Amino acid sequence: MLIRLGYDLRFDLPAPTVMTTLLHVHPSRCGDLREPDFLHVEPRVDVEFFHDLFGNLATRLRLPAGTARLHSRTLIEDPGTVDARDPLAPQLDLAALPPAVLRYLMPSRYCEVDLLSAIALELFGGTKPGWERVDAICTWVHTRVAFSYAKARATRGALDVFTERVGVCRDFQHLAITFCRCLNIPARYAAGYLGDIRVPVAPDPMDFSAWFEVYLGGRWWACDARHNTRRAGRVLMATGLDATDAAITTTFGASTLTHFEVISEEVPGDASRAVPTHRAATA
Amino acid sequence: MLIRLGYDLRFDLPAPTVMTTLLHVHPSRCGDLREPDFLHVEPRVDVEFFHDLFGNLATRLRLPAGTARLHSRTLIEDPGTVDARDPLAPQLDLAALPPAVLRYLMPSRYCEVDLLSAIALELFGGTKPGWERVDAICTWVHTRVAFSYAKARATRGALDVFTERVGVCRDFQHLAITFCRCLNIPARYAAGYLGDIRVPVAPDPMDFSAWFEVYLGGRWWACDARHNTRRAGRVLMATGLDATDAAITTTFGASTLTHFEVISEEVPGDASRAVPTHRAATA
Amino acid sequence: MLIRLGYDLRFDLPAPTVMTTLLHVHPSRCGDLREPDFLHVEPRVDVEFFHDLFGNLATRLRLPAGTARLHSRTLIEDPGTVDARDPLAPQLDLAALPPAVLRYLMPSRYCEVDLLSAIALELFGGTKPGWERVDAICTWVHTRVAFSYAKARATRGALDVFTERVGVCRDFQHLAITFCRCLNIPARYAAGYLGDIRVPVAPDPMDFSAWFEVYLGGRWWACDARHNTRRAGRVLMATGLDATDAAITTTFGASTLTHFEVISEEVPGDASRAVPTHRAATA
Amino acid sequence: MLIRLGYDLRFDLPAPTVMTTLLHVHPSRCGDLREPDFLHVEPRVDVEFFHDLFGNLATRLRLPAGTARLHSRTLIEDPGTVDARDPLAPQLDLAALPPAVLRYLMPSRYCEVDLLSAIALELFGGTKPGWERVDAICTWVHTRVAFSYAKARATRGALDVFTERVGVCRDFQHLAITFCRCLNIPARYAAGYLGDIRVPVAPDPMDFSAWFEVYLGGRWWACDARHNTRRAGRVLMATGLDATDAAITTTFGASTLTHFEVISEEVPGDASRAVPTHRAATA
């Protein structure tokens, strides 16, 4: 399956501003790209690339005051299958986890593991370690938290989600991540494209999406407490401890988002045949 | 100057427990060691070494139920001078910061940059960027927060410190780090040895100490909102986003600390002459 | 001056629900009413009147499932002058305050006096007690907090307002009340009608309004950190510790507000002459 | 049974200070006093009596700088029976509650009903209304929260207790009160004497005690999530929304408590026979 990806973001900047972005397909998926994934910036400025602490491909931009437009269109090959799962992948003992994974058991800004541990144990301590526990957590969060764009709040942490029972995509994942960590399942935040691939088209306009990953049996697996269903068509852009690390754009200074458009849709058969041309074009 | 370093920690563990430690001198200071810095564990268990996300030398231990003892004694050469400072090192523009440093401008568990930004701007927005701002922050925190071991609390974040005005070493640094980040000065948490080198001996028993580092003019500099004075004899063990990343020991399960002893003292002249023997022994 | 007052609220109730209201003009203003201030409820249910702990005139309703409509129209005589002020009214010593006023120095749900005391002292400790201090507080809150209906949140307390710097009417007053209490000025929450009397007409649709009162020199005075200007035409409905006590309606169970209309406007001369008829009608 | 009651509190006051106290036996128990319950203050100052918003007998003192001593000894007759309970007293419908009781369903400073409602419903929504629900709440709190004087914190609210799972007497009651209110059971905070009457003597030194009251079937009943057992010998001093309203002493300014002694013990038979003399003395 080929998926057309793209975004078009516009900002009003009252003053010259530094912005960092995580607007590229994650390095782990670069091999699947069929067109270049190139961040266009208007007005034209230097785009400085770097890899952040978590291995994401980031950019830093120095934007002048005025209107800034960031956009891209690319094409990616995707198996089109739903989120992978090996039911036999076990929850590893703490002594068996790769050391690099241990940090994903600890608290972070929006995942207050220290505050939610007793609660997590109460709610999920009786479940079987591993997938059963992860599923119980996702279902609980999905069922008990209501989705509301109107109640989005950038400072909401997992404890707030737990008491307020409302949030947007990131809030669902933060609470689920925190519960997983409390119960010794490494969990990290993930952001990327998620179109309505092979599901009924949702009424909301497309947005980037947040999900999370758990570490079971030697690898990371995508999970999603927001939708609580295995989905096709996730295209990862960034992972990190929580939304702090995987914000698509971070602006150091005042800015107003004036336009926001994201595309992530399956390309029908005919269109996909046209791809080699594109590939040639990029060679 | 030679500094004798060491610790002796004992824990009661009701069940087999995994523990991670950051009990070694930081890799950046390994060249100064005049004796091996070796973590002894009783009972004897395998000690697994790894470097964490922040470049610290960490270990993982699988301890049986019962009493566990962790101890070490080593010797380090130290210039004996107080915390370095180049008054000409400027606060760098966001576009000029090394990309790896940018994460230290963002929120972390105990440094709620998103919650304290307006406050930081109010308090310190009028100060000159760079050292003057860092000094103003340290002095403010040092003056307004009272030290109290009795009021230590593992879940206290910078906002709590700001409202409660009380804390231990880590709390002072968390608040100062947060204010620095709010004002675009990269700041990170640091933990290590800090003896009463060339200062009047404090009445408190020795402990590991927390301080923080700011990034000015192209390098990190040690700062200390707890003592608010340049000190000699800091021996770094770990750095990270906040205390989450630089905890000397992290126990995944119940444990009781039953004994805690830390040594960090200047070795008088005669004793220091004995060092070459030690050095030979480690060769 | 005569002011036409009224409201029309409609709720969808999925199940039979108990509601309490504070929808009447405050007992202290009853003498100014020129028409009855009568809560009409549709469907017709018994309206039980009581005075709450703070002396407000409250009602309790037992509403069936379905649509409920609460409405009233009344007319009140008002001096039309702006909020009274005696610049000579001093901040009373704690020993001189009437005992009944002391509770208004203490914390309440949305006014965390215990958390904001050090901050209040820092910000306003240098101001002169009394009106100068109250004015400094109102100006500070008015200047530093941004108004946003979109960011209303029922659980936001004064500390949240202080860090988030955004809110609706009640949030401005909560922060100002808290600062006043921290500095030993009794302060209480007030809710009522506030039309655009003798001020340029605001673009927002009419709503009930929140303000607060401080106790200086032996009486309560209306203050308003939201508008930070002395206004004409406030008609008090309820006072209390904070918004908890002065909520216009409190629903014990699920409900959706489907219609909300408030009227508070000066009656032009001709219309006001028609009033005696109304008064006769109520005789 | 006769119970000897008394206290001896001493404070260091760096400056002249206003203090309010709730150091008298509650008006509802005055008829049981067999000796006057008289607050002695040293140095001698005027003691101003008043009844607060909740009907407690309060005093206001204007103390000079230096040492202040507050003490009393009195004798009260007590049935010596454990906390009363009528298992048939039902949880009243919201429409049937006396209006004055409705405030005890709402949030207060340390009882964040708005934050804990979803949680309360989850934990206790399946229990039978009335005593069964109250008992479930008390048992839950008693079982899940650990008592620790060392971790007392004046700013801890019910949500903190829920996440931290540790506290002193007041914290247990705050969480239980909040859960009750969330589930439409009116609940209020209570403070008073509680000696080791007919229970094994506890190792802790005597203190005033906090408990709470629920409103079932037309009256208030004493409950105690700290001890979770029906006790004899409670002597009420004050009730209120939470600890804010029932603090034994409230000092408006700096003060250090240097001595704290509370007596509440059964007078053995012989001693009690001596009482008529005292009674004569008070006649």
TrEMBL record, chains A, B, C, D:
Residues 161-227 form the Transglutaminase-like domain. This is Transglutaminase-like superfamily protein.
